[in-house]
Specification:
With 392 residues, the chain is an alpha+beta fold. It is built from ten helices and 16 strands.
Length: 392
């Protein structure tokens, strides 16, 4: 690949994806970190001198429809030619450049071109706030369903939620039932003076309509001071793999929803979680085992070599998913000091997709997953029920 002015020429070979889609690794010298775009990649691809598009297309749309659609994800570019021809033989030149207008210089993230979701500007529209309220309610209700005794078991219990997301709604609902709540994420969403008061006010009104024996004073307190009071909720910005500030055996219950799949090292994380959990303490973790780049093709990242996957995973802050399978997570959990009470498979891969995908996986040269059984590959969403072993 060679540079030409402000554009970078993409030299073949291009990797055939499927349908009309082609993939190429973005050159390392292409500078995507001059600023941080809030939602979409600033990368533009050209066919000869004409920009292709639409950009930011779904990967399946690129495969099915093509016509110049493309998507930049991590270290890779998925693209189609304008007439769905083979870019190796159509005689055209393909190049990329960076749209400088896509950068907001007030929102920089050191060392990365992609800002973590939690740190992006909040959407405070009534429709989005209501969607977020319903999501928080769903997550909290799922927590209450799996915790033995439900809400009645939470009084004075120390509860840690990993990866609470753009608001702490689910954790604070547990606080309203008497739990002492901690939230932890290296990218905790900061207080937004527009979004969060509207969100927590709406959440409180929604809770009032529930026939629950619940104390809403935690939410009332937050709204009165327009921030998160230190004596109400403990905010921890450590990664799950490095929870050094949380004392040994100080947590009764640990919960997470769609977090474990984004961890760099679930193995190290579960060791820390076991360390901070009291004997016979509990853990409940919903894990989404799909390739987050395209949920309709949930196992595509298993085709990558370890190096290719690491480059992609690092460049998107792990938002693609870490691709560990359920059987690997079971091993990490057993080694950490937790026992697995049970695992529920919430979602299974479609058999038609597996019929097409598995032959491609078997043919890969360097994927560590090429010999995994169909049974293991089929599991794409799991809920782990854990209990901390007693002291020996």
């Amino acid at each position: 690949m060679t540079s030409y002015g402000k554009q970078t020429i993409l030299n073949p070979p291009f990797i055939k994806d499927s349908g009309y889609s082609w993939i190429i690794h973005i050159p390392e010298h292409v500078n995507l970190s001059d600023g941080s775009h809030t939602q979409k990649s600033p990368l533009v691809i050209y066919e000869n001198i004409k920009p292709l598009g639409p950009a930011h297309a779904l990967h399946q749309d690129i495969r099915d429809r093509g016509g110049g659609m493309y998507s930049h994800w991590g270290a890779y570019l998925y693209f189609s030619t304008s007439d769905n021809s083979d870019p190796h033989v159509n005689g055209r030149t393909y190049s990329i450049s960076i749209d400088a207008t896509a950068f907001d210089n007030t929102e920089r993230v050191s060392g990365s071109h992609m800002k973590p979701v939690n740190l992006r500007p909040r959407d405070s529209s009534p429709e989005k706030v209501e969607e977020d309220i319903q999501h928080a309610m769903t997550v909290a209700e799922n927590y209450l369903k799996v915790i033995p005794g439900g809400a009645s078991h939470l009084k004075s219990k120390a509860v840690l939620e990993l990866g609470p997301g753009i608001n702490f709604g689910a954790a604070l609902i547990l606080s309203c039932f008497g739990a002492r709540v901690i939230v932890s994420d290296p990218y905790l969403s900061p207080w937004d003076h527009i979004y969060h008061p509207v969100f927590y006010s709406g959440l409180m009104e929604t809770l009032k309509m529930k026939e629950w024996d619940i104390d809403l004073s935690p939410l009332e307190c937050i709204l009165s001071v327009n921030r998160y009071p230190d004596d109400l909720i403990t905010i921890n910005t450590e990664a799950a793999e490095n929870l050094r500030s949380i004392p040994d055996e100080s947590i009764d219950i640990i919960v997470s929803a769609a977090v474990v799949e984004h961890l760099i090292s679930p193995q190290r994380a579960f060791h820390h979680l076991a360390r901070i959990t009291r004997p016979f303490g509990l853990g409940f973790h919903w894990v989404d085992l799909r390739d987050h780049r395209d949920f309709s093709n949930p196992l595509e990242y298993l085709l990558l070599s370890d190096k290719e996957f690491k480059d992609m995973f690092d460049s998107c802050h792990g938002e693609s998913g870490n691709r560990y399978r359920e059987v690997e997570l079971r091993t990490f959990i057993h080694e950490s000091g937790f026992s697995i009470k049970k695992v529920e498979n919430y979602q299974l891969a479609d058999d038609t997709y597996l019929d097409e995908f598995i032959p491609r996986l078997r043919k890969t040269a360097n994927s560590p997953y090429k010999k995994y059984s169909r049974e293991e590959l089929k599991k794409i969403s799991s809920l782990f029920y854990l209990v901390k072993s007693a002291k020996t």
